[in-house]
Amino acid sequence: MSLLMQCLNIKKQYGEFNILNGVSFNINTGDKLGLVGINGAGKTTLANILSRNISCDEGSLIYHKQAMCLSYLKQTSDYDEDSLGEFRSDRRQQKAEFYKACDELNVSYLVNGKNSCHWDKLSGGEKIKLLLAKVITSKSDFLILDEPTNHLDLSGITWLIDKLSKYKGTVLVISHDRYFLDAVATKIVELDNGKAHMYQGNYSFYRDEKKKAYDSQLNAYLLQENYKNKIDSEINNLKNWSYKAHKESAAKAIAMGNKMGGKEHLRTKAKKMDNQIKSRIKRLEKIDIEGVTKPKEEKNINFSLMDSHKVTKSILSVVDLSKSYGSNIVFHKSTFYINREEKVGIYGINGCGKTTLLKILLNKETYEGKLSISKGINIGYISQDVLDLPEDKTILEYLDPKNNDEMGTIISNLYNLGFDSAAVSKKLFQLSMGEKMKIKLTMMIKNNNDVLILDEPTNHMDLHFREQLETVLENFTGTLLLVTHDRYMLERICNKLLVFEHKAIKKVDSGFKEYISRPQIKEKQEDKLTLINNELTFVISKLSTCKKDSEEYKELDTKYTELIKMKRKLSSNFT
After folding, report:
1. pLDDT higher than threshold 80 for residue 574
2. Segments in 93-153 forming alpha helices (H)
3. Residue 575 has pLDDT above 50, yes or no
4. How far apart are CA 467 and CA 210, in angstroms?
5. First and final CA of the chain: distance in angstroms?
6. Can the keyword ATP-binding be found in this entry's annotation (predicted)?
7. DSSP state of 374
8. Helix crossing, 124-136 with 81-89: angle to 10°?
Protein backbone atom coordinates (compact mmCIF):
# COMPACT_ATOMS: atom_id res chain seq x y z
CA MET A 1 0.00 0.00 0.00
CA SER A 2 1.24 3.49 -0.84
CA LEU A 3 1.37 6.29 1.70
CA LEU A 4 -1.67 8.60 1.50
CA MET A 5 -1.19 10.97 4.43
CA GLN A 6 1.15 11.61 7.37
CA CYS A 7 0.18 13.23 10.67
CA LEU A 8 3.28 14.68 12.30
CA ASN A 9 3.22 15.94 15.91
CA ILE A 10 -0.33 17.36 15.68
CA LYS A 11 -1.23 19.57 18.65
CA LYS A 12 -4.52 21.28 19.47
CA GLN A 13 -5.50 23.20 22.59
CA TYR A 14 -8.84 24.67 23.70
CA GLY A 15 -8.35 27.14 26.54
CA GLU A 16 -6.35 25.36 29.24
CA PHE A 17 -7.00 21.89 27.85
CA ASN A 18 -4.47 20.13 25.61
CA ILE A 19 -6.75 17.92 23.50
CA LEU A 20 -4.10 16.66 21.08
CA ASN A 21 -0.51 16.72 22.30
CA GLY A 22 1.80 15.38 19.61
CA VAL A 23 -0.34 13.01 17.52
CA SER A 24 1.69 11.19 14.85
CA PHE A 25 0.70 8.28 12.57
CA ASN A 26 0.60 7.33 8.89
CA ILE A 27 -2.43 6.58 6.71
CA ASN A 28 -1.97 4.29 3.71
CA THR A 29 -4.13 4.00 0.61
CA GLY A 30 -6.84 1.42 1.25
CA ASP A 31 -6.53 1.52 5.06
CA LYS A 32 -9.71 0.93 7.05
CA LEU A 33 -8.94 2.75 10.31
CA GLY A 34 -11.05 2.73 13.47
CA LEU A 35 -10.44 5.80 15.65
CA VAL A 36 -11.22 5.09 19.32
CA GLY A 37 -10.79 6.75 22.71
CA ILE A 38 -12.80 7.86 25.72
CA ASN A 39 -15.32 10.72 25.51
CA GLY A 40 -13.31 13.95 25.22
CA ALA A 41 -10.14 12.27 23.91
CA GLY A 42 -10.18 14.47 20.79
CA LYS A 43 -11.52 12.07 18.13
CA THR A 44 -13.84 14.57 16.43
CA THR A 45 -11.20 17.31 16.78
CA LEU A 46 -8.68 15.11 14.94
CA ALA A 47 -11.28 14.24 12.26
CA ASN A 48 -11.88 17.96 11.70
CA ILE A 49 -8.14 18.57 11.36
CA LEU A 50 -7.71 15.67 8.90
CA SER A 51 -10.63 16.99 6.81
CA ARG A 52 -9.17 20.53 6.96
CA ASN A 53 -12.25 21.98 8.65
CA ILE A 54 -10.03 23.36 11.44
CA SER A 55 -6.28 23.90 11.69
CA CYS A 56 -3.91 22.44 14.26
CA ASP A 57 -1.91 24.69 16.60
CA GLU A 58 1.34 22.85 15.88
CA GLY A 59 2.45 20.01 13.64
CA SER A 60 1.72 19.25 10.03
CA LEU A 61 -0.33 17.10 7.67
CA ILE A 62 1.55 15.81 4.63
CA TYR A 63 -0.61 14.66 1.70
CA HIS A 64 1.04 12.19 -0.66
CA LYS A 65 -1.68 12.28 -3.32
CA GLN A 66 -2.30 15.40 -5.33
CA ALA A 67 -5.93 16.61 -5.67
CA MET A 68 -7.17 14.06 -3.13
CA CYS A 69 -10.97 13.97 -2.85
CA LEU A 70 -12.10 13.67 0.80
CA SER A 71 -15.64 13.28 2.16
CA TYR A 72 -16.46 13.85 5.83
CA LEU A 73 -19.65 12.56 7.47
CA LYS A 74 -20.23 14.57 10.64
CA GLN A 75 -22.64 13.55 13.39
CA THR A 76 -26.25 14.15 12.40
CA SER A 77 -26.69 17.01 14.89
CA ASP A 78 -24.30 19.08 12.72
CA TYR A 79 -26.73 19.17 9.76
CA ASP A 80 -29.79 21.38 9.21
CA GLU A 81 -32.78 21.98 6.95
CA ASP A 82 -30.60 22.90 3.96
CA SER A 83 -29.21 19.34 3.94
CA LEU A 84 -32.50 17.83 2.70
CA GLY A 85 -32.71 20.38 -0.11
CA GLU A 86 -29.18 19.47 -1.20
CA PHE A 87 -30.14 15.81 -1.49
CA ARG A 88 -33.17 16.61 -3.68
CA SER A 89 -31.43 19.13 -5.94
CA ASP A 90 -28.22 17.09 -6.34
CA ARG A 91 -27.21 16.78 -10.00
CA ARG A 92 -24.01 14.81 -9.54
CA GLN A 93 -22.88 12.19 -12.00
CA GLN A 94 -23.46 9.62 -9.23
CA LYS A 95 -27.10 10.62 -8.71
CA ALA A 96 -28.41 7.26 -9.98
CA GLU A 97 -26.11 5.45 -7.53
CA PHE A 98 -27.28 7.77 -4.75
CA TYR A 99 -30.94 6.92 -5.47
CA LYS A 100 -30.06 3.23 -5.57
CA ALA A 101 -28.37 3.51 -2.15
CA CYS A 102 -31.41 5.35 -0.77
CA ASP A 103 -33.64 2.60 -2.12
CA GLU A 104 -31.46 -0.10 -0.50
CA LEU A 105 -31.72 1.80 2.80
CA ASN A 106 -35.52 2.27 2.41
CA VAL A 107 -35.36 6.10 2.40
CA SER A 108 -35.90 6.83 -1.32
CA TYR A 109 -39.29 8.38 -0.45
CA LEU A 110 -37.40 11.27 1.17
CA VAL A 111 -35.60 12.35 -2.03
CA ASN A 112 -38.16 11.71 -4.74
CA GLY A 113 -39.33 15.35 -4.74
CA LYS A 114 -42.86 14.47 -3.63
CA ASN A 115 -42.15 14.24 0.09
CA SER A 116 -42.47 17.52 2.01
CA CYS A 117 -40.81 16.39 5.27
CA HIS A 118 -38.57 18.89 7.02
CA TRP A 119 -35.11 17.85 8.22
CA ASP A 120 -35.98 18.37 11.89
CA LYS A 121 -39.01 16.08 11.48
CA LEU A 122 -36.93 13.16 10.25
CA SER A 123 -35.89 10.40 12.64
CA GLY A 124 -32.24 9.91 13.54
CA GLY A 125 -32.24 6.75 11.40
CA GLU A 126 -33.65 8.55 8.35
CA LYS A 127 -31.09 11.33 8.64
CA ILE A 128 -28.07 9.07 8.95
CA LYS A 129 -29.24 6.87 6.05
CA LEU A 130 -29.54 9.86 3.72
CA LEU A 131 -26.11 11.12 4.75
CA LEU A 132 -24.52 7.69 4.31
CA ALA A 133 -26.10 7.22 0.87
CA LYS A 134 -24.54 10.48 -0.29
CA VAL A 135 -21.11 9.88 1.24
CA ILE A 136 -20.77 6.25 0.13
CA THR A 137 -21.61 7.15 -3.50
CA SER A 138 -19.30 10.20 -3.56
CA LYS A 139 -16.37 8.37 -5.26
CA SER A 140 -13.96 9.92 -2.77
CA ASP A 141 -10.37 8.80 -2.15
CA PHE A 142 -10.75 9.18 1.61
CA LEU A 143 -13.89 8.84 3.76
CA ILE A 144 -14.04 10.11 7.35
CA LEU A 145 -17.17 8.91 9.18
CA ASP A 146 -18.03 10.23 12.65
CA GLU A 147 -20.41 7.87 14.50
CA PRO A 148 -22.08 6.51 11.32
CA THR A 149 -23.98 3.76 13.21
CA ASN A 150 -25.69 6.03 15.74
CA HIS A 151 -29.48 5.63 15.16
CA LEU A 152 -28.79 3.09 12.38
CA ASP A 153 -30.72 -0.19 12.57
CA LEU A 154 -29.00 -3.55 12.22
CA SER A 155 -29.97 -3.95 8.56
CA GLY A 156 -28.49 -0.50 7.90
CA ILE A 157 -25.30 -1.45 9.75
CA THR A 158 -25.06 -4.64 7.67
CA TRP A 159 -25.47 -2.54 4.50
CA LEU A 160 -22.75 -0.12 5.60
CA ILE A 161 -20.35 -2.95 6.52
CA ASP A 162 -20.83 -4.45 3.07
CA LYS A 163 -20.22 -1.12 1.28
CA LEU A 164 -17.11 -0.26 3.29
CA SER A 165 -15.67 -3.76 2.90
CA LYS A 166 -15.90 -3.37 -0.90
CA TYR A 167 -14.78 0.28 -0.88
CA LYS A 168 -11.49 0.75 -2.76
CA GLY A 169 -10.51 4.01 -1.06
CA THR A 170 -9.32 4.82 2.46
CA VAL A 171 -11.69 4.98 5.44
CA LEU A 172 -11.30 6.43 8.93
CA VAL A 173 -14.31 5.78 11.15
CA ILE A 174 -15.07 7.04 14.65
CA SER A 175 -17.41 4.53 16.22
CA HIS A 176 -18.50 3.12 19.57
CA ASP A 177 -20.01 0.03 17.90
CA ARG A 178 -17.72 -2.94 18.57
CA TYR A 179 -19.43 -5.30 16.11
CA PHE A 180 -19.10 -2.68 13.36
CA LEU A 181 -15.44 -1.97 14.19
CA ASP A 182 -14.65 -5.68 14.24
CA ALA A 183 -16.23 -6.12 10.81
CA VAL A 184 -14.74 -3.02 9.12
CA ALA A 185 -11.48 -1.90 10.73
CA THR A 186 -8.14 -3.43 9.76
CA LYS A 187 -6.24 -1.01 12.03
CA ILE A 188 -7.17 0.78 15.24
CA VAL A 189 -5.85 4.21 16.21
CA GLU A 190 -6.36 4.92 19.91
CA LEU A 191 -6.22 8.48 21.26
CA ASP A 192 -5.02 8.45 24.86
CA ASN A 193 -3.73 11.47 26.80
CA GLY A 194 -3.35 13.44 23.58
CA LYS A 195 -1.21 10.80 21.85
CA ALA A 196 -2.02 8.28 19.10
CA HIS A 197 -1.25 4.56 19.34
CA MET A 198 -1.67 2.29 16.30
CA TYR A 199 -2.76 -1.36 16.48
CA GLN A 200 -2.65 -3.68 13.44
CA GLY A 201 -6.02 -5.40 13.59
CA ASN A 202 -9.72 -4.94 14.38
CA TYR A 203 -11.28 -3.82 17.67
CA SER A 204 -11.17 -7.23 19.39
CA PHE A 205 -7.50 -7.60 18.40
CA TYR A 206 -6.78 -4.11 19.80
CA ARG A 207 -8.46 -4.96 23.13
CA ASP A 208 -6.51 -8.23 23.39
CA GLU A 209 -3.19 -6.57 22.51
CA LYS A 210 -3.81 -3.71 24.92
CA LYS A 211 -4.57 -6.15 27.74
CA LYS A 212 -1.43 -8.17 26.94
CA ALA A 213 0.69 -5.01 26.98
CA TYR A 214 -0.90 -3.89 30.26
CA ASP A 215 -0.36 -7.29 31.91
CA SER A 216 3.26 -7.44 30.68
CA GLN A 217 4.06 -3.93 31.92
CA LEU A 218 2.31 -4.57 35.23
CA ASN A 219 4.29 -7.78 35.73
CA ALA A 220 7.58 -6.01 34.95
CA TYR A 221 6.61 -3.16 37.30
CA LEU A 222 5.78 -5.55 40.17
CA LEU A 223 9.09 -7.41 39.72
CA GLN A 224 10.88 -4.06 39.74
CA GLU A 225 9.04 -2.98 42.91
CA ASN A 226 10.08 -6.23 44.63
CA TYR A 227 13.68 -5.55 43.61
CA LYS A 228 13.43 -1.96 44.92
CA ASN A 229 12.02 -3.23 48.23
CA LYS A 230 14.93 -5.65 48.49
CA ILE A 231 17.43 -2.82 47.95
CA ASP A 232 15.56 -0.63 50.48
CA SER A 233 15.88 -3.46 53.00
CA GLU A 234 19.62 -3.77 52.29
CA ILE A 235 20.07 0.00 52.71
CA ASN A 236 18.28 -0.08 56.08
CA ASN A 237 20.47 -2.99 57.25
CA LEU A 238 23.67 -1.23 56.09
CA LYS A 239 22.58 1.98 57.80
CA ASN A 240 22.07 0.06 61.04
CA TRP A 241 25.46 -1.65 60.68
CA SER A 242 27.13 1.67 59.79
CA TYR A 243 25.56 3.37 62.79
CA LYS A 244 26.76 0.54 65.05
CA ALA A 245 30.26 0.67 63.50
CA HIS A 246 30.55 4.43 64.04
CA LYS A 247 29.26 4.05 67.60
CA GLU A 248 31.65 1.16 68.34
CA SER A 249 34.52 3.16 66.76
CA ALA A 250 33.94 6.07 69.12
CA ALA A 251 33.51 3.81 72.17
CA LYS A 252 36.61 1.78 71.33
CA ALA A 253 38.68 4.90 70.73
CA ILE A 254 37.81 6.12 74.25
CA ALA A 255 38.55 2.70 75.76
CA MET A 256 41.92 2.52 73.96
CA GLY A 257 42.88 6.01 74.92
CA ASN A 258 42.34 7.34 71.41
CA LYS A 259 45.02 5.07 69.93
CA MET A 260 44.86 5.46 66.16
CA GLY A 261 45.07 1.74 65.12
CA GLY A 262 41.80 0.41 66.57
CA LYS A 263 39.99 3.60 65.90
CA GLU A 264 40.98 3.74 62.20
CA HIS A 265 40.02 0.11 61.64
CA LEU A 266 36.46 0.75 62.84
CA ARG A 267 36.23 4.02 60.92
CA THR A 268 37.30 2.24 57.72
CA LYS A 269 34.65 -0.42 58.31
CA ALA A 270 31.95 2.23 58.84
CA LYS A 271 33.08 4.22 55.77
CA LYS A 272 32.93 1.07 53.63
CA MET A 273 29.32 0.55 54.68
CA ASP A 274 28.55 4.23 53.92
CA ASN A 275 29.86 3.72 50.37
CA GLN A 276 27.73 0.61 49.95
CA ILE A 277 24.69 2.61 51.07
CA LYS A 278 25.46 5.39 48.54
CA SER A 279 25.88 2.78 45.78
CA ARG A 280 22.48 1.23 46.47
CA ILE A 281 20.79 4.64 46.73
CA LYS A 282 22.18 5.51 43.26
CA ARG A 283 20.84 2.20 41.95
CA LEU A 284 17.38 3.10 43.27
CA GLU A 285 17.55 6.57 41.72
CA LYS A 286 18.49 5.04 38.37
CA ILE A 287 15.47 2.71 38.54
CA ASP A 288 13.18 5.69 39.30
CA ILE A 289 14.53 7.51 36.22
CA GLU A 290 15.00 4.65 33.73
CA GLY A 291 12.81 1.88 35.14
CA VAL A 292 9.35 0.60 34.25
CA THR A 293 6.49 2.93 35.16
CA LYS A 294 3.26 1.60 36.62
CA PRO A 295 0.80 1.03 33.73
CA LYS A 296 -2.19 3.33 33.59
CA GLU A 297 -5.30 1.40 34.53
CA GLU A 298 -8.58 2.13 32.75
CA LYS A 299 -10.87 3.95 35.14
CA ASN A 300 -13.59 1.57 36.27
CA ILE A 301 -17.09 3.01 36.23
CA ASN A 302 -18.44 1.69 39.51
CA PHE A 303 -22.21 1.70 39.93
CA SER A 304 -25.10 -0.70 40.23
CA LEU A 305 -28.84 -0.64 39.56
CA MET A 306 -31.16 -2.02 42.24
CA ASP A 307 -34.85 -2.81 42.05
CA SER A 308 -37.22 -2.73 45.04
CA HIS A 309 -37.78 -6.54 44.95
CA LYS A 310 -41.51 -6.50 44.32
CA VAL A 311 -42.87 -10.02 43.86
CA THR A 312 -45.40 -9.46 41.06
CA LYS A 313 -44.68 -11.97 38.32
CA SER A 314 -46.47 -10.25 35.44
CA ILE A 315 -45.10 -6.74 34.76
CA LEU A 316 -47.25 -5.86 31.75
CA SER A 317 -49.60 -7.50 29.28
CA VAL A 318 -50.70 -6.21 25.88
CA VAL A 319 -53.73 -7.46 23.93
CA ASP A 320 -54.54 -6.43 20.33
CA LEU A 321 -52.35 -3.33 20.56
CA SER A 322 -52.62 -1.11 17.48
CA LYS A 323 -51.14 2.25 16.53
CA SER A 324 -51.49 4.31 13.37
CA TYR A 325 -50.99 7.88 12.21
CA GLY A 326 -53.82 8.55 9.78
CA SER A 327 -53.60 5.88 7.09
CA ASN A 328 -50.07 4.89 8.16
CA ILE A 329 -50.28 1.72 10.27
CA VAL A 330 -47.32 1.41 12.64
CA PHE A 331 -48.39 -1.94 14.16
CA HIS A 332 -51.70 -3.79 14.31
CA LYS A 333 -53.40 -6.16 16.80
CA SER A 334 -50.25 -7.23 18.61
CA THR A 335 -50.44 -9.33 21.77
CA PHE A 336 -47.60 -10.11 24.19
CA TYR A 337 -46.64 -10.03 27.87
CA ILE A 338 -43.52 -9.19 29.90
CA ASN A 339 -42.69 -11.01 33.14
CA ARG A 340 -40.55 -9.96 36.08
CA GLU A 341 -36.76 -10.27 35.60
CA GLU A 342 -37.05 -10.71 31.83
CA LYS A 343 -34.50 -8.76 29.79
CA VAL A 344 -36.23 -7.96 26.54
CA GLY A 345 -34.48 -6.64 23.46
CA ILE A 346 -36.72 -4.61 21.14
CA TYR A 347 -35.68 -5.36 17.57
CA GLY A 348 -36.75 -3.96 14.19
CA ILE A 349 -35.74 -1.66 11.35
CA ASN A 350 -35.68 2.15 11.63
CA GLY A 351 -39.21 3.56 11.61
CA CYS A 352 -40.96 0.32 12.61
CA GLY A 353 -42.33 1.85 15.84
CA LYS A 354 -39.91 0.82 18.61
CA THR A 355 -39.81 4.25 20.26
CA THR A 356 -43.58 4.63 19.68
CA LEU A 357 -44.17 1.42 21.67
CA LEU A 358 -42.04 2.72 24.54
CA LYS A 359 -44.03 5.96 24.60
CA ILE A 360 -47.28 3.95 24.73
CA LEU A 361 -45.97 1.95 27.69
CA LEU A 362 -45.08 5.25 29.39
CA ASN A 363 -48.56 6.68 28.67
CA LYS A 364 -47.10 9.32 26.36
CA GLU A 365 -48.91 8.12 23.21
CA THR A 366 -52.49 7.14 22.40
CA TYR A 367 -53.27 3.61 21.18
CA GLU A 368 -55.98 1.08 20.50
CA GLY A 369 -56.26 -2.24 22.34
CA LYS A 370 -55.65 -3.25 25.95
CA LEU A 371 -52.58 -2.45 28.01
CA SER A 372 -52.23 -3.59 31.62
CA ILE A 373 -49.25 -2.56 33.76
CA SER A 374 -48.71 -3.98 37.26
CA LYS A 375 -49.68 -1.48 39.95
CA GLY A 376 -47.01 0.06 42.13
CA ILE A 377 -44.00 -0.68 39.95
CA ASN A 378 -41.41 2.05 39.55
CA ILE A 379 -40.40 2.57 35.90
CA GLY A 380 -37.14 4.26 34.91
CA TYR A 381 -36.84 5.62 31.36
CA ILE A 382 -33.89 6.88 29.35
CA SER A 383 -34.79 8.32 25.95
CA GLN A 384 -32.32 8.41 23.07
CA ASP A 385 -32.62 12.20 22.97
CA VAL A 386 -30.32 13.90 25.50
CA LEU A 387 -31.70 17.28 24.47
CA ASP A 388 -34.78 16.80 26.67
CA LEU A 389 -32.84 17.75 29.82
CA PRO A 390 -33.41 21.18 31.46
CA GLU A 391 -30.25 22.79 30.05
CA ASP A 392 -30.34 25.84 32.35
CA LYS A 393 -30.07 23.72 35.53
CA THR A 394 -26.87 22.55 37.17
CA ILE A 395 -26.24 18.83 37.60
CA LEU A 396 -27.09 19.05 41.30
CA GLU A 397 -30.25 21.09 40.71
CA TYR A 398 -31.48 18.49 38.21
CA LEU A 399 -30.73 15.49 40.46
CA ASP A 400 -32.37 17.36 43.37
CA PRO A 401 -31.10 15.65 46.57
CA LYS A 402 -33.64 15.83 49.43
CA ASN A 403 -31.15 15.65 52.30
CA ASN A 404 -27.44 15.41 53.11
CA ASP A 405 -27.41 11.61 52.91
CA GLU A 406 -28.94 11.67 49.43
CA MET A 407 -26.52 14.44 48.45
CA GLY A 408 -23.57 12.26 49.50
CA THR A 409 -24.92 9.28 47.56
CA ILE A 410 -25.44 11.37 44.42
CA ILE A 411 -21.93 12.86 44.57
CA SER A 412 -20.50 9.38 45.10
CA ASN A 413 -22.43 8.02 42.10
CA LEU A 414 -21.29 10.94 39.93
CA TYR A 415 -17.68 10.23 40.91
CA ASN A 416 -18.16 6.54 40.11
CA LEU A 417 -19.46 7.55 36.67
CA GLY A 418 -16.33 9.56 35.96
CA PHE A 419 -17.26 13.08 37.16
CA ASP A 420 -14.99 15.09 39.47
CA SER A 421 -16.15 16.97 42.56
CA ALA A 422 -16.43 20.30 40.70
CA ALA A 423 -18.85 18.86 38.13
CA VAL A 424 -21.97 19.24 40.33
CA SER A 425 -21.99 22.99 39.70
CA LYS A 426 -21.81 22.64 35.91
CA LYS A 427 -24.85 23.60 33.87
CA LEU A 428 -26.30 20.75 31.82
CA PHE A 429 -25.73 22.64 28.55
CA GLN A 430 -21.97 22.57 29.28
CA LEU A 431 -21.84 18.75 29.20
CA SER A 432 -20.99 16.53 26.25
CA MET A 433 -23.63 14.17 24.81
CA GLY A 434 -22.03 11.23 26.61
CA GLU A 435 -21.93 13.10 29.92
CA LYS A 436 -25.62 14.02 29.61
CA MET A 437 -26.50 10.36 29.13
CA LYS A 438 -24.54 9.56 32.31
CA ILE A 439 -26.55 12.19 34.20
CA LYS A 440 -29.74 10.43 33.09
CA LEU A 441 -28.24 7.20 34.35
CA THR A 442 -27.44 8.83 37.71
CA MET A 443 -31.11 9.78 38.07
CA MET A 444 -32.06 6.17 37.36
CA ILE A 445 -29.60 4.90 40.01
CA LYS A 446 -31.15 7.32 42.50
CA ASN A 447 -34.70 6.06 41.88
CA ASN A 448 -34.23 2.27 42.47
CA ASN A 449 -36.49 1.33 39.55
CA ASP A 450 -38.18 -2.06 39.18
CA VAL A 451 -38.42 -1.73 35.40
CA LEU A 452 -35.89 -0.03 33.13
CA ILE A 453 -36.93 1.18 29.68
CA LEU A 454 -33.82 2.21 27.76
CA ASP A 455 -33.97 3.69 24.26
CA GLU A 456 -30.49 3.62 22.70
CA PRO A 457 -28.73 4.26 26.05
CA THR A 458 -25.24 3.80 24.58
CA ASN A 459 -25.51 6.54 21.92
CA HIS A 460 -22.59 8.92 22.49
CA MET A 461 -21.01 6.60 25.09
CA ASP A 462 -17.37 5.59 24.71
CA LEU A 463 -16.49 1.92 24.24
CA HIS A 464 -15.09 1.39 27.74
CA PHE A 465 -18.28 2.72 29.33
CA ARG A 466 -20.48 0.59 27.05
CA GLU A 467 -18.72 -2.57 28.20
CA GLN A 468 -19.13 -1.65 31.86
CA LEU A 469 -22.79 -0.66 31.37
CA GLU A 470 -23.39 -4.13 29.91
CA THR A 471 -22.06 -5.71 33.10
CA VAL A 472 -24.35 -3.52 35.22
CA LEU A 473 -27.44 -4.37 33.12
CA GLU A 474 -26.49 -8.05 33.14
CA ASN A 475 -26.47 -8.00 36.97
CA PHE A 476 -29.69 -5.95 37.28
CA THR A 477 -32.31 -8.11 39.00
CA GLY A 478 -35.36 -6.19 37.76
CA THR A 479 -37.05 -6.11 34.35
CA LEU A 480 -35.40 -4.52 31.32
CA LEU A 481 -36.81 -3.33 27.98
CA LEU A 482 -33.91 -2.32 25.74
CA VAL A 483 -33.80 -0.68 22.34
CA THR A 484 -30.27 -0.83 20.96
CA HIS A 485 -28.55 -1.37 17.63
CA ASP A 486 -25.42 -2.58 19.43
CA ARG A 487 -25.41 -6.23 18.42
CA TYR A 488 -22.90 -7.28 21.09
CA MET A 489 -25.08 -5.71 23.80
CA LEU A 490 -28.24 -7.41 22.50
CA GLU A 491 -26.52 -10.79 22.42
CA ARG A 492 -24.97 -10.47 25.87
CA ILE A 493 -27.88 -9.05 27.88
CA CYS A 494 -31.27 -9.93 26.39
CA ASN A 495 -32.91 -13.34 26.96
CA LYS A 496 -36.20 -12.40 25.20
CA LEU A 497 -37.09 -10.29 22.17
CA LEU A 498 -39.97 -8.17 20.92
CA VAL A 499 -39.61 -8.33 17.14
CA PHE A 500 -41.28 -5.79 14.82
CA GLU A 501 -42.13 -7.27 11.42
CA HIS A 502 -45.04 -7.19 8.98
CA LYS A 503 -46.74 -4.36 10.93
CA ALA A 504 -46.94 -6.45 14.09
CA ILE A 505 -45.02 -7.05 17.33
CA LYS A 506 -44.13 -10.65 18.17
CA LYS A 507 -42.53 -11.91 21.36
CA VAL A 508 -39.68 -14.39 20.89
CA ASP A 509 -38.61 -16.58 23.83
CA SER A 510 -34.92 -16.61 22.96
CA GLY A 511 -31.90 -14.33 22.76
CA PHE A 512 -30.83 -12.41 19.67
CA LYS A 513 -28.15 -14.82 18.45
CA GLU A 514 -30.58 -17.74 18.54
CA TYR A 515 -33.27 -15.69 16.80
CA ILE A 516 -31.18 -14.56 13.82
CA SER A 517 -29.78 -18.06 13.32
CA ARG A 518 -33.27 -19.63 13.06
CA PRO A 519 -33.95 -18.78 9.38
CA GLN A 520 -30.52 -20.08 8.40
CA ILE A 521 -31.13 -23.31 10.29
CA LYS A 522 -34.54 -23.68 8.66
CA GLU A 523 -33.06 -23.12 5.20
CA LYS A 524 -30.50 -25.86 5.86
CA GLN A 525 -33.27 -28.18 7.09
CA GLU A 526 -35.33 -27.49 3.97
CA ASP A 527 -32.31 -28.24 1.78
CA LYS A 528 -31.80 -31.54 3.60
CA LEU A 529 -35.50 -32.36 3.25
CA THR A 530 -35.31 -31.73 -0.51
CA LEU A 531 -32.35 -34.09 -0.80
CA ILE A 532 -34.18 -36.76 1.23
CA ASN A 533 -37.30 -36.43 -0.95
CA ASN A 534 -35.20 -36.75 -4.09
CA GLU A 535 -33.48 -39.82 -2.68
CA LEU A 536 -36.86 -41.31 -1.66
CA THR A 537 -38.17 -40.86 -5.21
CA PHE A 538 -35.13 -42.71 -6.54
CA VAL A 539 -35.46 -45.56 -3.97
CA ILE A 540 -39.20 -46.00 -4.65
CA SER A 541 -38.63 -46.14 -8.40
CA LYS A 542 -35.91 -48.78 -7.94
CA LEU A 543 -38.08 -50.81 -5.56
CA SER A 544 -40.82 -51.01 -8.18
CA THR A 545 -38.43 -52.79 -10.57
CA CYS A 546 -36.88 -55.26 -8.06
CA LYS A 547 -38.06 -58.68 -7.01
CA LYS A 548 -39.24 -58.74 -3.40
CA ASP A 549 -37.06 -61.70 -2.45
CA SER A 550 -33.84 -60.21 -3.90
CA GLU A 551 -30.93 -58.81 -1.84
CA GLU A 552 -31.21 -55.50 -3.71
CA TYR A 553 -34.87 -55.18 -2.66
CA LYS A 554 -33.96 -55.80 1.01
CA GLU A 555 -31.19 -53.15 0.90
CA LEU A 556 -33.49 -50.63 -0.80
CA ASP A 557 -36.30 -51.37 1.67
CA THR A 558 -33.95 -50.75 4.62
CA LYS A 559 -32.78 -47.51 2.99
CA TYR A 560 -36.42 -46.46 2.46
CA THR A 561 -37.22 -47.00 6.19
CA GLU A 562 -34.16 -44.92 7.23
CA LEU A 563 -35.07 -42.07 4.87
CA ILE A 564 -38.66 -41.97 6.18
CA LYS A 565 -37.37 -41.70 9.78
CA MET A 566 -34.99 -38.89 8.78
CA LYS A 567 -37.80 -37.04 6.99
CA ARG A 568 -40.14 -37.27 10.00
CA LYS A 569 -37.40 -36.02 12.34
CA LEU A 570 -36.57 -33.02 10.13
CA SER A 571 -40.23 -32.16 9.59
CA SER A 572 -40.88 -32.14 13.35
CA ASN A 573 -38.07 -29.57 13.83
CA PHE A 574 -39.81 -26.92 11.73
CA THR A 575 -41.35 -24.12 13.77
Report:
1. no
2. 95-104, 124-136
3. no
4. 15
5. 50
6. yes
7. -
8. 40
